[in-house]
Amino acid sequence: MIRTLRESLAASPLPRLEAQLLWQRVLDVPRAWLIAHDADPLQPAQLDAYRALEARRIAGEPIAYILGRREFFGRDFLVTPAVLIPRPDTELLVECGLRAIRDVRAPCVLDLGTGSGIVAVTLALERPDARVRATDRSAEALAVARKNACALGAKLLFSHGNWYDTELGSVRFDLIVSNPPYIDARDAHLGQGDLRFEPPDALTDGADGLRALREIVRGAPDHLGPGGILCVEHGWDQAAAVRSLFLRHGFADVASERDLSGIERVTRGCLQA
Ligand SMILES: C[S@@+](CC[C@H](N)C(=O)[O-])C[C@H]1O[C@@H](n2cnc3c(N)ncnc32)[C@H](O)[C@@H]1O
Questions:
Q1: Record-annotated residues binding S-adenosyl-L-methionine (predicted)?
Q2: pLDDT in tens, 158-188
Q3: Which fold is adopted by the domain 82-271?
């Protein structure tokens, strides 16, 4: 019979780190506490609560949804099944956006498809002088983004709707960023692993994976000011196609940036003045 944390960790089929994260949630303690108290007797109710979380993980539910949290750019974000789980790759999109507005005072920024709000909130916190608007077609996702903005103290404007078809008014943005759904609807990975639990609308455009990117690039010139910059995240094999989209729609200085694995993951371009 399991009586202590040490015994529970040894018996768990989960990787040790995941089991520890679940125990942290059950006991509401930091990781160091688990190590210092691993021989303390556990209450039956605590063991029951842990087993319930462990069963969800064994059934495949992503750890971020079970915990309801995920770190991004050094900050802790609320995550629910209504939003994509933040990926470390997306930090490259934020870095690209921050570089794009480095020399612009009080920049106007638009984040299309904000999901949990990680990109918009991070840009607003890293550049407190920026005016940042975040949009999404999913009202549930926007509710999560609002909570994250509020919890982290970021002042954002929100609009609900299809890409540019929201209350954007006549503002011309200095920067448009987007991490749109870019997985081909026929990709078998959509039925595997964590992706099975994420909102389909956040993963795939229901077509070849470039449909959303085409709409975003095509619409950007009508919403960027002269010299404005568009930065988009895309799939590992889409960089060349995205660069030609940018060029076709009048962007200059078009270039793709590589993520930590060396994959071209983000493409940017500047609207010629
Ligand atoms: C890949 S997720 C990105 C979420 C978040 N920006 C991130 O990086 O974690 C794409 C987001 O685009 C939204 N979306 C999908 N189609 C859309 C559309 N036609 N108009 C606006 N938003 C859309 C989804 O609801 C989802 O939140």
A1: 113-117, 136, 163, 179
A2: 999 999 999 888 899 999 999 999 999 999 9
A3: Rossmann fold (3.40.50)
